[in-house]
């Protein structure tokens, strides 16, 4: 049964190996270039970190972002092209009547098929994630932002959970829809939707956020902008390596009360540096809510666990349904 499954799957596996080889070559070259740039711009006497960030952002932000999107999409593609047709094609062509009336039980047939395809998807996704994590490590070290919602799902072990879930979800959709192309489309749409909902509605609440009041200083905020309502927006809040959840903290006065319009306008805005110095002198504060950097691996494991739990529930449903007289 295993040999037969491999023979049926080997064409798709060879395509995956070719794609992996091409992407691996690109990521190795990219990683070596990033390391060379890091040595030249960061690991040198008198180098400016801010200048290095400008160089890295202009040269490597887009390639790493696009490659990261690809790593996140690969599990969805695997689920659509490998998982969804696994049962849907059998129903669509009617071959399930022949296959499931042989000496091999339906449960064993499904276990071997699903196990092989899931393993292949995990290997492919894991290899890409490992290569991207290695290639981007100097960039991530410089910007200290691997908790960023755009970076978190592309690094380390999180994509492995996505791969397992996507394959099992594809099989489940194929079982319910029984049409290959619609099952593929539904799986892809659902996977993309889940990738949007996870960082916005689920991940921020996996653990209670740390909330604290900090002084409003040049070291704590960059890109200062205050609107008429006293709401403070920043491009960056200096909590090293953390995932800052507060997007628009309100400015507070020295006593911790919301700053009034008169208090805010008492600092002239003509010169940004003088404006910030005035704010620091008056003791303005803000409340920050964030997930600390030391929770990164906890969140990685929690996210993998969530996707594995979902995959387990879906697999349980499929194995429960298959032996029960599908025609």
Descriptive account of the structure:
- Helices cover 65% and strands 8% of the residues.
- It is α+β, with helices and mostly antiparallel strands and 327 residues long.
- The chain folds into two domains: 2-206 and 296-324, no CATH class; 210-295, no CATH class.
- Helix 2 (49-93) runs parallel beside helix 5 (158-177), helix 5 (158-177) crosses helix 6 (180-202) and helix 5 (158-177) packs parallel to helix 9.
- The chain is elongated and about 85 Å long.
- The chain crosses the membrane at residues 12-32, 64-88, 109-137, 157-177, 184-202, 304-322.
- Keywords: Membrane, Transmembrane, Transmembrane helix.
- It comes from Plantactinospora mayteni.
- This is Transporter.
Distinctive features:
single chain; 327 residues; alpha+beta; 2 domains; 4-stranded antiparallel sheet; two-stranded antiparallel ribbon; 9 helices; 65% helix; elongated
